[in-house]
Write a structure and sequence with these properties.
71 residues, mainly alpha, 2 strands, 37% helix
């Protein structure tokens, strides 16, 4: 049980980037702008030996949008 105050063996991975934030909700970037930011983030995480976590909604594939190339 989580509320037992005992240590559990899990790894929490923080989210680095989400498609909806790049293209719709927060930033409203075009493909080039989004790629520049994501590429820079990937490089920084790589330099630190980290793990880059992406939340990409499969609905982008269904929409026929230009953003599908990122997949």
């Amino acid at each position: 049980m989580i509320d037992s105050r005992k240590e559990i063996d899990i790894v929490e991975l923080p989210l680095n980037v989400m498609d909806m934030s790049l293209f719709q909700h927060d930033m409203r970037l075009d493909l080039d702008g989004a790629w520049r930011i994501v590429k820079e983030m990937i490089n920084l995480v790589h330099q630190c030996g980290g793990v880059f976590v992406v939340n990409w909604h499969n609905s982008w594939l269904e929409q026929g949008s230009d953003e599908r190339w990122i997949y």
